[in-house]
């Protein structure tokens, strides 16, 4: 085959450092908009974004030229710098070191978007920690609880 065709969608979950509830409703839309710009600069598309004051979920489409790890390194570094420059009162803002990235096929896209959109309702019943553990189990990812949280 002379060409390469890919459909690479990822549901990515990551938290503020120490799960600090610093992503407030007044700040959230601007943050998501900025994250979308970073994803676009990396050749991708931010399909959906949502979350809570202590963590976010993004659904992204990436091209085959960019590894998830590289995009996340740029996304976290640039967005953290932008927050510090733009919002002086948020000078303690930082992202956790790691993240969870889970593949999302086209057949599950509408469910993933709905899940991301309904974070506030979901977290009335489930903590972020339990949510992440559930994702790891569902995707059969082994982990050591001692190293799961920073």
UniProtKB/TrEMBL annotation:
SUPFAM superfamilies for this protein: Transposase IS200-like
Recorded superkingdom: Bacteria
An example molecular function term from Gene Ontology annotations: DNA binding
Entries under Pfam families matching the protein: Y1_Tnp
Example GO BP: DNA transposition
Domain Transposase IS200-like: 5-119
The protein, known as: IS200/IS605 family transposase
């Amino acid at each position: 085959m002379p060409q390469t065709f890919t459909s690479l969608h990822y549901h990515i979950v990551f938290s503020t450092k120490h799960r600090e509830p610093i992503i407030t409703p007044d700040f959230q839309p601007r943050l998501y908009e900025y994250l979308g710009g970073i994803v676009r600069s990396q050749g991708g598309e931010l399909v959906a974004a949502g979350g809570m004051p202590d963590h976010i979920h993004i659904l992204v489409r990436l091209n085959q030229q960019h590894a998830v790890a590289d995009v996340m390194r740029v996304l976290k570094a640039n967005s953290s710098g932008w927050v510090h420059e733009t919002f002086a009162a948020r000078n303690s803002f930082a992202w956790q070191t790691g993240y969870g990235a889970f593949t999302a096929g086209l057949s599950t896209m509408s469910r993933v978007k709905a899940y991301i959109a309904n974070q506030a309702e979901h977290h009335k019943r489930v903590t972020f920690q339990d949510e992440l553990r559930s994702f790891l189990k569902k995707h059969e990812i082994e982990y050591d609880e001692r190293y799961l949280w920073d």
